[in-house]
Design brief:
Layout (H helix, E strand, L loop, with lengths): L5 E5 L3 H13 L3 E5 L2 H10 L4 E7 L7 H11 L7 E5 L4 H9 L4 E4 L4 H25 L9 H14 L5 E8 L2 H8 L1 H19 L4 E4 L4 E7 L6 H11 L10 E7 L7 H13 L9 E3 L2 H22 L3 E9 L6 E12 L3 E3 L1 H11 L2 H22 L6 E4 L2 H4 L4 H11 L7 E6 H6 L1 H13 L3 E7 L6 H6 L4 E4 L9 H18 L1
Parallel strand pairs: 1-2, 1-3, 3-4, 4-5, 9-10, 12-14, 14-15, 15-16, 16-17
Antiparallel strand pairs: 6-8, 6-9, 7-8, 11-12, 12-13
Helix pairs in contact: 2-3, 7-8, 15-17
Length: 506
Amino acid sequence: MAAKKTILVVDDSAPNRRILCGILRADGYDTLEAADGQAAIRLLEDGSRRIVLLLLDIVMPVMNGYELLRTMNETGLIASVPVIVTTGHEEAETELRCLDCGASDFLTKPYNAELVRHRVRSLLRLCENAALINQLETDRLTGLYSKEFFYRHAENLLLENPTREFDLVYADIDGFKMINAHYGTAAGDELLKFLAAYYAGQTGEGGVCGRIGADIFGILKPGHETHTQEEVGRFLARDLKDAPVKGFSFKCGIYHVRDHSLPISDMCDRAKLALESIKNQYGVYYAMYDDSMRSRALRDYRLANCMEEALEKKQFQVYLQPKHSTETGAVAGAEALVRWNHPELGFIPPGEFIPLFEQNGFIARLDFYVWTKVCWLLRKWIDQGRSLIPISVNASRADFAAADLPGKIGSLVDAYDVPHEWIHFEVTESAYTDNPKMLISAVSALRSMGFKIEMDDFGSGYSSLNMLSELPIDILKLDMRFMQSGNDRIKNGKRNILSFVISLSK
């Protein structure tokens, strides 16, 4: 059974209090009484009983009705407890003064019971609806606007200021799931509340701020400020030094609003594209959106939509890039490279679709397709009685995340009856940094099965002595930048580094 609502009647006249309390109790309410404003304040601040409405006389000793209304405004109580003023005067000046002080409605003496019940019910229903709307409008944890209402208020702000410059900021905490896992969800919530207050302060009175995702905030603020990454880094170090979680970072994508009629959701998408362009870049805190990002995103979307069909229709073609011996000049091997021959877009370079497939996971299926093509080709050469050369194929990070990769590869190669030593598997340094134990286990199993292991692009940014000592590598492929030279000093320096890497690998 729902608890009864409690109404506080404040009047220095005991008969008036008795009449009002009788009417209210007959309508199902609990009542409290106070003979002056100070007694009413004590009851309001007590907190043991939640008071939903206050019926207030104006003329009282100690603290009159006007003074009580002023105190309720100063303490914020007026926002949660509506007030109906009870007065024996019907003067417009009195009503206007009470409205200015925060009163919601009026009742005149002598009391009409039916009118009292009607006014009380209507005001409480109005307040409950307003509370429900406010609950939907604001995020309960941070107090900021929820996603839907952020969009609504931001769009209104732009429509009301058609000539003013604005920036739409899309802010995201790096690795928020790991923060929750390491520090606990309570600490994560405290960090969100801290950042919500920070963003709200940065937004200012002329903007609007909302929580539009788990750890994602949207900010629409007037103006268009530009700062260097170093300046932003200093600002953040100063402003976030008291954050409840240390060592976290966040990044922002910024869309400078040019078309005020563009939906806020589209603006957020563009700011998000800017943010995604700087993911995993240390010391880079923000990025500005430009149209090339959207063009790239649209092209990626188109490629992702037709990649399954392209694989079925064999639009991916495998080419062999020869490897020559530096001693004899003869072909000593080859590397399998994949190209996409799209019927409408033509040849699509791997630098355009490989990163996309690595991101969406399709790279594992494409790799298996290439392995299959290489096995077919080697089998064809064997059947034709031709001399074989080893062919290197790529194994992506996504491949090593699959269960029993060595068994899957072994079954494929054995199905074509190809000797394992003619297939080399190339792994990248970045695969080692993602999950060293899994990579070492899979690579060791492949090598024990007779496959050769190559480390691709060694020296491109993740090199470590641990990797060289722990991975069973047969061939080390150096990053091509070791071979590129500028002036003689740089050329000599690279030659020294190259010699050192060769001796180290041996």
